[in-house]
Design a protein that fits this description.
single chain; 6 helices; disordered C terminus; 3-stranded parallel β-sheet; alpha/beta
Length: 169
Amino acid sequence: MKKRVVSLVLAAAMSSLLLPGCSSSDEPASGTPDTDKAEETVFEEAETSGLTKVVLNEVAHSIFYAPMYVAIEEGYFEEEGIELDVVTGFGADKTMTAVLSGEADIGFMGSEASIYTYNEGANDYVVNFAQLTQRAGNFLVAREEMESFKWQDLKGKDVLGGRKGVVHI
């Protein structure tokens, strides 16, 4: 199982090297002069180390990405010639923006962000190429133990969701 998860993460990272060729635009992506200079410095460092620099923007720092974090700490990406830089986007909209702007090579986010971008008629959109989880990784926590919890116990209570705001049940 461990090898399977690590293989999936490595395949996703290595597949990102193909993403620049998926652009529908004929013009190369470019940022501000300062951004371009910073990117050149990062890539020069990666080149001198013999590793390919890959920037991965994750929607949130999550326990569900634990296999990837272990693979990073154990040096699996470096063994495959990849210098992986993980950045947390704090929202699918920000992760999508990072990928579309060239700030990130890979975005870990739900498929809805790419669907919204495509449906809005974007000329340059991303393509989903891997599934990281099979089910939503949501869970419910409480400040105090509730031995015989029932979902109806939440009726009329305030429940804080993953984003700003409160969901009233």
